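Page 47, continued from p. 46.
Same chain as before, 725 aa.
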Amino acid sequence: MDEEQPIIFDEDEVSPAEVYWAKRDARELVSTLQDKEIGFFDALKRRGFVRMWRYMWAQYYGQDPNSIGGFESQMITVAGEDGELLNFRLNEVRPLIKRQIQLVVGERPAFQCQAINTDFQTLGQVNICDSIIEYVYREAHAERQEWEVAESDSNYGAGFGWVRWDADRGDEVEVTEQMPIPADPYANPPIPEGAMAPVPTMKRAGAPTVTVVHPWEMIQEASSKSHLWRMIRERASKWELIAQYPETAEKVRAMKGLDEYVTEALFGFSDNDDESDELIVRHFYHERCVAMPEGRYIGFVGDVVLWDTSCPVSKGLPIVEMCSERFEGTSFGYANGWELIASNQLTDQITSDAASNLATFGRTVIGVYDGTKFDVDALANGHRVLNIPAGAEPPVPINFAGIPAAAQWMLEHLNQRRAAISGINEAAQGNPEAQVSSGSYLSLLHNIAIESQAPRQTAFDMYRERMANLMLDLVRQRASAPFLISIAGLDERPYLKQFTADKLSGVRRVIVKTANPMMRSQAGRMDVYNAVKQIPNSNDRAAAIELIVSGNAKNFAKTERSEEMAIAWENEQLAQGITVPIHESDDPYKHWPRHKAEMNARREELLSNPDALEAFNKHMKDHELFYAQMMSQEVCAFLGIQPSPTMQMMLQSQMQMQQMQMQAANTNQQAPEGQMAGGQATQAGDATMQAGGAPTSTDPSAAAGVEQPDLPQPAQPPGSQSEAA
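Result:
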């Protein structure tokens, strides 16, 4: 038998093994993805995730995982050979998880957009971008889906939001489109065949839409920490697919039912899915990367390819994951709710035993001594009189239904353990201990419950932020028609305004502002109010609120910090020999000592750099002169400092001079006409002296002939020098 010869490729040909599997022909890719899907579910089963998901699903919805469909926690059922045992289950897990989600979801998200640069046009876009993002987020019903995503994360370890663009959603807006018009050779000018003209028409603006995806519907690599690709399993109507893709109608029509990986099959309540009109459509996404610059998006049902195109988003995948805790070594999440199952199962067992005991022996049983006369039927009908022989002991009740103290202790212990595991204490459950009467202490307990959800809160905030940025990306790429959003006007009344996708071109990204845990409860808000209402200064009060709400203390030291930065910059310039003019708002008590300290630190360096030494000396001298002779009382009051002694003396002299002038004016009004004439002659003589060159300025420092500091001088009006000459 001849040996098998290896396949030899031409120089320009590439071996199939050397081609990235995601870049192969669509049919080959479908076959590869089907194999990866089988491997994904095998990994789930080997690692116990399917079993865990099944138990959690049953616990959350009050089902028996071994017998789905019984609604065990919604009604009492019987067990035992003769039905002598009661199954009395209380679903303690679901309320705790719902409370966790409620604390995490909290208030509506507040979006804040960031600009690419600081030009006027971009900043104008940012001013309205918040409203645009809120509009598309609301239009996609993303807030409504948030709860379901968080619920999936709490129960199954992860939840996903799948974003697509729906051209048939959004408001109807008027757009102008180029439409064919009838030919008319007699028109002026003539209209040729195939001519196009702008025609106004009504069109849907389009909007993103969000679909919630559970972990068993998201095919991915089982052990990867990051994912270049993911594939979503979506249930779709066979007849809808036939209508949308008539070229594949014959093959799609021949397909039957669902597969063994749908929810009902995995969790054990499967119906006859072979007769279902639904099929599984698989959406494979590969992000844009070096290996695949355009990415890939292919949809197929069975082995029939429905579409094959590039990735619909410019970065990443159109899928946003919420995963609070990761199961180490896998790409799957670990749900905190799983820790509650065992304690709830034991609670169910104890309460069922107690209920069975009470149902059997709950009616009073009495023991009577021989010789006691009574009518059993009368006693059963409520007769209360027994004839007891003289000296005999009265009958006693026998308690067969008593619950052991250990069982009661265990129930209390399990309740405490569930509160500790879930982080939902009794105050957060709305059932605080009786001895807790302080509102502040209740607020503290509530805040502790909120802060215990920190991993879930972080994951949820990241989900919101990524979802908003993904929607922003889709709007930029897919919105071809303008859309209407509601914006608050100057009078705070909303009005509708049209915007197009290019209005978002200057927006770099979106961030989400999250409320402080304290601000998510009424008690917490009251604590903040009581803490800041006594602060007299409004700026300090605002800074305190910012500190409490966001943990940001910058506003407390914003003025001081900016002053320090300005002084540091001045020192850097002066050390290079660059002259820096002072500003009239500079605080000399802060600037001068800092410049002196910098000179001391650089003393040896300045001895060899006379320009820098001169710059420091002049700058500090300018501070001295300006403070001593030119800083007004108003600026000193703003800075919280006293005017200089020199300025105080000048101001005092000026006030005395003004008083003397006022007194002289009053004296002239009361003097005879001859004296008035003499006074006028004296004033004329003073005016002549001033014309002869005496200073006429009313500035005290100028009148004193003191040196002026180096300040930026205002520009002189044209012709002022010639007029002075």
